[in-house]
Amino acid sequence: MNAVKNVTVIPATLDYYSAVPIIQAIRKKVAAYARVSSDKKEQLTSYEMQVRYYTNYIQSNLEWDFVKIYADEGITGTNTKKRDEFNDMVKDALAGKIDLIITKSVARFARNTVDSLTTVRKLKEKGVAVYFENENINTLDAKGELLLTIMSSIAQEGARKISEDVTWGHRKRFEEGKVIIPYKNFLGFRKGKDNLPEIVEEEAEIIRTIYKLFLDGKTPYGISDYLFENNIPSPMGKERWSVSTIRSVLINEKYKCEAILQKSFTVDYLTKKKKKNQGEVPMYHVKSSHQAIVEPEVFEMVQAEIEKRSKLKGQHTGGSVFSSKILCADCHNFFGSKVWHFTTKYRKTVWQCRYKFKRKKKCETPHLSEEQLKNLFVLGFNKLLEDKDEIIENCRAVIEVIGDTKTLETEKARLCGESRLLFTRIQSYIDKNASQTLDQQEYKANYTKLSAEYEAVKQKIQDADFKLQKARVNKIALEGFLNDFPKDAELITSFDEKLFSSVVDKIVVDVNNQVIFIFKNGHEVPVRFEELKQNES
Predict the structure, then answer these.
(1) How far apart are CA 191 and CA 198, in angstroms?
(2) Which of 84, 95, 131, 414 has its CA 20 to 30 A from that of 108?
(3) Would you state the CATH architecture of domain 183-311?
(4) Most confidently modeled range among 26-40, 182-196, 263-277, 447-461
């Protein structure tokens, strides 16, 4: 017969999670976490109420020691990386300063299931409980993690749904052509009547200055220096403009009363990571969406100049009126400036081919002093003035011809129609292959042929666009030349920097002791060095 077992229970003396003696664990160190998800006034009021509520709630419990209220204002709940107070709270809890954390709900704690569970498990290992009031979940309970997993998933799904709703709302506004501008950091506009962009004239003048300086030959670096020297602060209020800001001003279509919407999109609603839109989602091109700060033609001229500079041999610099204007006829590279006799009274600036001594056979083109260049321009421009009446007449005739783009626009419209038809045929053919049994070899051959036709038409449309843009740019350049051309002027006697920038496209230095001035109307005027010597004598 088996003896009756005598079992005596030895009570636990340490807390299961914290290993603290139970007699000491009666009083808990308690903190609370509060968060509001935006900076709206009503939300901040809610935030203040949460702080007040939890402070009173914890301090009124005689078995609890109040630690602190950790609270984040206007921070996203989809991840915990940017929540400073939240992270401080977890750090303090893991260091043994907190036994219990009270928070309103799973959604307030984190709408990301992974973040929520990872944090809770870390705390649980140290015996720290998290209590969610709305869901009545204590993470140290046996059922706590199961419930938390379910509630966190629901909260995350809610965040996803909110993100989808916001994205849908944005795209709906894009489809309707409603322009969204970040006015706080966007120079030139403010929110006007009916939420439409309204021009701020003082700021718009800065934008126009940037465009003019660029067309006059300055680089974004040179423009930055000019704005700094003239005490014009950046859109963010900084003394010096960043080069990237100036570049973004020069390519932003909103300044010409157009808008391309959805240039980027959110890849992950949890991390809020954005990506440049390269065709993954639709873009929307809205024309005449608001008032223009710069004329569309001026904007197109700037884009053409940006394209031109990107293709030039050598780096484009804009430190001088002659920068990136002088070309070597021998090797087709730019001239650069050098200072000779820097520390003496004979100091002077000379211009010579940058690659003069970098090739096996050095360039034969001569160097020129800045004074020589200025005097050569005076001679070249005076030669141009001799035929000014003919030049003005020719310019007007050319402007009339290149300004008539009706034929080109009609052809582009026809090509666009052809493109749409081909696209529809391709789509129908794909659908037919999906719903019927076709010979796949024949299908592939026909599909390849249709695709090739479609791509060819697309290329023709791009070519037509390029020709239209080139015609517009040339027309504007000639109109600008005519406006700046001194129709009633006598011969000039000294160098005028503004006139030079307005009328000269480039200078070619020849090996035959001459320079050729190529003016913006296309006229080429050669000036020999002998003429300069004769003029000086």
Answers:
(1) 6
(2) 95
(3) Alpha-Beta Complex (3.90)
(4) 447-461
